[in-house]
Every structure is written in C-alpha cells, then in structure tokens.
DNA sequence: GAAGTTACCGAAACCGGTTTCGGCAAGCGG
DNA sequence: CCGCTTGCCGAAACCGGTTTCGGTAACTTC
C-alpha cells in the first residue's frame, strides 16, 4: 500500500513541478515565491528576478484550478452556443470560435463551450456553468431584444459581454457591428442609383439585429425622402427558402420594388431563386444588397453585393472586452460598435426598369407558366 | 478595510454553499459529508441519506476545481480544433461540438476547446493545455496516418481518443466510421449497375481516412473482378474546385469512367460542374457516389447519392469513450467502428453509356467550345 | 463477562496555490 | 546611542475540497 502511494506520488512529482519545488530549490518559502511571481511590492527586485529565473528553468506553471480556489478566478471564459438552423451552417461558428480562442489563448485564458438546442436549454446550461463556476464570465452571441440570459446573469452578478445589443442595457458590455448603418447605407446607395421603390426583407424580430436593420431601412428611406410603405416590407426570412418566398411576395405587389435590401445573405440567395422564376436578371432587372458576407455569396451569378461582418474579429474583441469586464472595468466603458464593410459585387446596379415594367414582366412570366 | 473584506466574504458565502455549510448544518465534520456524498463504504446508510438530503436542500454543488487539486481529475475534456479549409464549412463543426457537449454535459463534464491554424499550432496548444492540466484528456479529430499529436500525448501519458484511426495504434482508443467499407460498397453498387470503368477521387493522403477509402476502392474492384487502373485515380480533392479539376482529369482519359467514387461530398459537387461543362447528365451519363452526407448534396440536381456519417453521434461516442479511458479503461477495449449509412439519391444509376460513347460526347463538347 | 471485531465517524493532514500577519534587520532622525 | 520607520521575508492561516488514520461504541464470541 505504501509502495503504491509512494509510486503515485513520485509519478505526479515527475509530471508536475509545484510552487514548493521552486521554493525548496531556492531555499525560500512558497509564500515568497508566490508573491514574487505575482508582482507583490514587498519582494525585492533581486529576489523577484531569482524566483522568476528559477521558475522558468524548472518549467513551473501554476495550476489555474489551484489558484482559483483561493482567488475565485479561473481565467476561463464561458460560451453557450445555441445551434439552431441559424448558426449550424456557414463558417460563422468556426470563425467566431477561432477569434475567441485565439484572443483567450494569447491572454492565457481558456474557453469552455457548451451547446444547447433551445432557449430553455441555453438558460439551464448557463445557470449550471455559472453555478459550478466553470467560467468567470460569458460571451452571449445572438442577443435578443428581450434576453433571459442577460436577466439571469445580471441577477447572478456574473460578468458577461454581448455580441449585439439589447433592450435594457443596464450593466451590459457589448460589441456589435452597426448593421443599422449598413442597412441605411444600402438604401441610400440604391436611391443614388435611381431606385425609388426599395423593398426590405427583415429578420426574425426577436433578435435585436433584426430590429436595428429595420430601423436602418426606415432611416435610409427618411434620408432619401422616400415614404415608408408597409407593403414593401416582406415576411421575415433567415434562410434561402423563406427568402425566396419573401422576395416573391414583394415582386407580386401591384407596383413591385426595383431593388431589395435583405437582412441576411441567406435570404438574399433565396431572392435570386424568386427572381429566376420570373426571368428577372439580378443586378439589372432587380438590384439586391444584403448583409453578412457569407462565402456562398461569391458562388452565385452575379455575385452578391453585401455588407460583410468580420466575425473572427468580433470574437477577438468580445474576448478582450470580457476579460476587462471580469477584471473589474465598468460595463459602460466596454461598448464598441464598428461599421460593416461594404463589398460591392454584381447584384446591385442602376435602376433599369420602372416598377410598372417589372410588373408587366412578372405577370407575363406567370401567364407563361400557366400555359 | 475589515468591513470591505467582510462584505466580500459574506457576499461569496451568499453565492456559494460549501461543504462546510452542509457539515455545520448537520452538525458533522466535512470529512463525513465528503465521504457520504462520494459513496465511501464506511458511512451508514442513514447518515448518507441525511447528508444527501441536506446537500440537495441547501443546493450544494462541489467545485470541480477544488476537487481537482486533490483528486487530480477535473472532469473536463479537451478539444483542439484545427480550422483549416477542410472544417470551416459545413455543419460538421456544429454537429460535432453538439454531440460532444451533450454527452459531456449529461455526464456532468465540461468541454474546453481551443482552435489552431496549423499543425504546429495544434501541437503547441495541446501541449499547453495538457501541461497546465486544463483537461483530463483529449479528443483528436481528423487523425493523420502519422500523427504527432498522438505521439505527444502518448509520451505525456495523457488520455485521448481518436476520431479516426492511425498507423501506430499502440495505446490508442478510437471511434471511426468505416468509410473503407462504404467506398467498397459504392464500387460494388456501381458494378452491379453495369459500370465497368469506375474512377476514384481520393482525399489528401496524410489523413488516415483517405488511405482507408483508397483501400476500400481497391477492395471493391477486387471483389468485382475489375483490374486496378492507376489512370482511374485522380489527383486528391477536398473541395469543389479541386473536385472539378479531378473529375475533369478523369473525364479526359481516352477511355473515361462511366462512374465516379468520390472520397468527400465537396469534391463530388465539383464533379457536377465538370460534368456540366461537357453537357453530361449526372445520374445517367455519369454516375457519382460519394461520402460524407453534407446538406449541400440535397440542393443540387440530381441530389447526390452518398454515404452519410452521423457526426453528432460520433461526438457523443467519442466523449463516452474518452471518459471511460480517463476512468482507467484499457484502450484496447475502447475501439468502435460503425458503418456509414447509404443514402440513395439521384446521382447514380445504371450505366447508360459506354466509355467510348462518353469520350465522343466529351470531345464533341470540347470542339464546340473551341468554335 | 472479558476479549476481539466491526461499523461508523471525527480529527487532522493534504492538494497547490494565495494572502495576512508579524518579526527581524537595516536605515534614518534626533 | 536610542527609538522609529521601512524593506523584506518567513510562518501560518486560508480556500474548498479529499483522504488517511485512529478512536469510540456496539456487537460478537467463547
């Protein structure tokens, strides 16, 4: 029994050099070593240097878990991903994770992720992770206008940062890309190209970004002196199928739009299908400007004009903000909003048709199909 | 100062109920509580029940970090993802993560992930995570035939499981889907449909799966009594562009194949493009059977026939295996290989053309383009 | 009824760190 | 030359758990 225990212990010793090893190597106590390594002011410079050197040469790495039980800080950021249809596809996840992981790794932090299937599941996991202190704080992607995660974390006094904004921003830090400005710019650009009836395909209202893009659309109209016409706003669409339906809805208006602004690229790709059904050429018969910057936008003809969001960069920034937040910075000072970058490709152009002409083409196409 | 410290402490008290709280509530020592909760045999059933009940009603949850410093076990599984072109796309990542996270969560484990950009980066992160004991073991996705990660973890005596197999399997546990059997079956199915010249688009040789699928291809030929013709094996292709080039290469043979077996769906989608260039109809002029089961395969016409791998299930199984491995099970007993499921869709069918006919069509198409 | 088990639990050490407290020696002012 | 800071470090408590060790009471056993 003794042999066994001894063997195990020496095996562990061999694997891991502890603060005691460093201390005994130097002939000091571990308290001195600890304070030297953590930059306490009551350690002389010479001692500090000796300790650092010894720690380095022995390959000493403090165990984050052991540190955490006294300090309460684990240097781990938490991430609960809700993998619904919205996020499964695209490099979104990969890029987002890469950004977070990279920034975390550079700051010597780690990332613990969990995946959920529903809102309740997300909340349950968040609660569990916070409760068992598996992370010092959380990044909340895809913020909702009314977001229970925020309410929970705020109540539990657990630090967090938002990717996106929300209704009640008390105590919230966030990073976001100004998709409302992008949407507004899309309208203005289309107006400058001669378009006067500009349709809008919104996102799901529960997401904050969907509201903001709608605001941007209206702000754009206002700035161009165009009246807001509720008919020009379709049903929400987040994917190709719904996007096709929404575009179809708008194209079947008595005076259809000559240009579409889509909230997400995936819906815009659906609009391509709808246009094709009526033999409308995207970029000439019908202009489309969208938002996201997904890669499939480059695979269609003509290539999709869009506002691109750098998701990887967002992950990096969010991580940096969260670490600052955990370190005690006030949330009011941790709010960043950056513009999206306009990627002009082939799906938008000067207004070549009037709404009336478009309506004729469309009704002809429909008649042709009926025959 | 005292007030501040006191306040902080009582705040922490309020947040978290410790084993001491449970013990003092019951009037016992924390050692009794600990042993009762951990199922030690020297605690009476009545005491055990009382402790469990008290812990439950007080909402006591042991801190994994605190446990870890004595037990050395964190209940965390590690994952270093190399996000190259291969994995960025597709729901692969999302599904894989979902499976791992779900299985881990159910076993009350957590997942710490890290992302890397290169082989060296992966190794560096793996080394760091293992060194600082941020995880008790690792899941290694995308195993290579010669895999430095395996060598490192084996040397460091850190538990791990492979998603895929490798050359030297000493001490390795793994889960894999038998893509070699799938590839063989693909050949046999095509043979049964009358195809006699069956081309093969391999994957990158450094991946184990690519070798296995090549073996499966040859095994299929052997079983069908077809000779192996090196000309019928194209350059490796993992994406659409390369897939198109590889298919083009095979179609330009003097006696082109009437059917293709592709190692990955993405390459098969490239083959669609190549076929379109010569006005070849997939499924009749040229049959294609592939492997992966990605969703884009359902968006093309005709839909892609493929062998589908349940990546989410793989994640779940790998997690279960890793936990067993960490709990001391021998790696030899932790090896699973399951078949892929055949998804018959529209891209394969009876051989309608001879190779000679195909060659004629192709050369005609080329001449037409030249004019 | 004495001796020997056995069941059960408390006391204390331990894990690898951090942090508080106090003491010694050098430096400084008077 | 004495008292008082000040700089620097050791001793010990602490964090939240686990695990070893030993002792008491009840229960056998003859």
Question: Would you summarize the structure shown here?
Answer:
Two copies of one chain form a homodimer. With 371 residues, the first copy, chain A, is of the alpha/beta class.
Q: How would you describe the overall organization of this protein?
A:
2 copies of one chain form a homodimer. Chain A has 371 residues and is an alpha/beta fold. Chain A has helices spanning 2-15, 19-26, 30-37, 45-58, 64-71, 85-88, 92-106, 119-131, 148-156, 179-192, 208-224, 240-251, 265-277, 311-326, 355-370; strands spanning 76-82, 110-116, 137-140, 160-163, 173-177, 198-201, 259-262, 287-292, 305-308, 335-338, 341-343. A 6-stranded parallel sheet of chain A has the order 2-1-3-4-5-10, with helices on both faces. A 5-stranded mixed sheet of chain A has the order 6-7-8-9-11, sandwiched between helices. In chain A, strand 7, helix 13 and strand 8 form a beta-alpha-beta unit. In chain A, helix 2 (19-26) packs across helix 4 (45-58), helix 7 (92-106) packs across helix 14 and helix 10 packs parallel to helix 11. The longest helix of chain A has 17 residues, at 208-224. The first copy, chain A, is elongated, with a radius of gyration of 28 Å. The termini of chain A are far apart. Mean pLDDT of chain A is 93; it is low at 1-13. The A-B interface holds A 12, 15-16, 61, 63-66, 68-69, 72, 74, 76, 81, 83, 87-91, 93-95, 97-98, 101-102, 105, 110-115, 117, 125, 128-129, 131-134, 157, 295 and B 12, 15-16, 61, 63-66, 68-69, 72, 74, 76, 81, 83, 87-91, 93-95, 97-98, 101-102, 105, 110-115, 117, 125, 128-129, 131-134, 157, 295. The structure holds a DNA duplex (30 and 30 nucleotides).
């Amino acid at each position: 029994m003794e042999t066994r225990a001894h063997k195990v212990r020496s095996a562990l010793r061999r694997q891991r050099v502890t603060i005691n090893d460093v201390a005994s190597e130097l002939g000091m106590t571990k308290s001195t070593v600890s304070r030297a390594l953590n930059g306490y002011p009551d350690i002389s410079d010479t001692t500090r240097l000796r300790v650092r050197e010894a720690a380095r040469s022995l390959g000493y790495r403090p165990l984050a878990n052991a540190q955490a039980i006294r300090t309460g800080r684990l240097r781990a950021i938490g991430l609960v991903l809700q993998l619904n249809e919205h996020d499964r596809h695209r490099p979104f996840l990969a890029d987002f994770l890469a950004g977070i992981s990279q920034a975390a790794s550079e700051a010597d932090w780690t990332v613990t992720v969990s995946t959920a299937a529903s809102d309740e599941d997300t909340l349950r996991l968040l609660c569990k992770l916070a409760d068992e202190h598996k992370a010092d704080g959380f990044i909340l992607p895809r913020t909702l206008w009314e977001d229970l995660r925020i309410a929970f974390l705020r109540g539990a006094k657990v630090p967090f940062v938002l990717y996106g904004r929300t209704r009640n921003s008390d105590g919230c830090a966030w990073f976001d890309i100004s998709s409302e400005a992008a949407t507004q710019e899309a309208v203005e650009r289309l107006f400058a190209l001669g378009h006067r009836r500009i349709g809008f395909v919104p996102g799901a209202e529960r997401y904050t970004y969907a509201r903001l893009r709608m605001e941007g659309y209206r702000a754009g109209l206002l700035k161009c002196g165009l009246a807001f016409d509720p008919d020009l706003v379709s049903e929400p669409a987040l994917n190709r199928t719904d996007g096709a339906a929404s575009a179809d809805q708008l194209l079947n208006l008595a005076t259809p739009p000559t240009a579409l602004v889509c909230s997400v690229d995936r819906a815009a790709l659906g609009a391509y299908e709808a246009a094709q059904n009526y033999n409308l050429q995207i970029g000439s018969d019908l202009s489309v400007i969208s938002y996201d910057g997904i890669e499939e936008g480059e695979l269609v003809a003509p290539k999709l004009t869009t506002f691109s969001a750098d998701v990887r960069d967002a992950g990096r920034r969010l991580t940096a903000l969260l670490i600052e937040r955990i370190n005690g910075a006030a949330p009011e000072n941790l709010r960043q909003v950056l513009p999206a970058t306009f990627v002009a490709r082939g799906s938008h152009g000067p207004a070549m048709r009037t709404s009336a002409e478009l309506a004729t083409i469309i009704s002809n196409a429909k008649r042709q199909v009926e025959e």
